[in-house]
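Entry for the shared binder. Reason: the reviewer on the internal report wants the predicted structure included alongside the sequence.
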Amino acid sequence: MTGGDCVSMVDAGDVERDAEALYDIQLAASPPESLRRQYPSMSVRATGARTALRQQVEGPEQLTSFLRDLSGVGLVLTDVHLLPPAPATTRSVTYEVRVAGALGDPLLRSLRCPHYAVPEQTLIRLTFAAADLERFLRACTNCGVGIEGVRRVDAPQPRSQVVAT
């Protein structure tokens, strides 16, 4: 820094309050045009129908084998989630694997695992500060659009950490 530069750091409390992060928000339906106008930077896409498959595994090798089997029959994996453990502690853990499309009964029988259909959803991607995210979610529920899930995609970034004058 040269002698004439002045640097102002943002107070640590302001960083969290003003921090922006990228969010994926799953909605049960497409947002109305009025909401799209309020948030013109949002990207909107339909996820399509999916099928959720649950599989208990006793180690990473079994999970890898299960995922390889699903890919081997041509299924497109969209999500893999570790489910919370059951109250009775066992050595196995359960994963939920979502695949693209609504699978037919013959294929589901051959996979031999619990499953359920996941209806089409709308995925919104937007960058928000915490207060703006709350406002957007409230606007969604006010116009009758159900919220299926919210996931922060990246770490918060302060709006302005360092200001040089």
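Summary line for the report: The chain has two domains: 7-44+126-164, 50-118.
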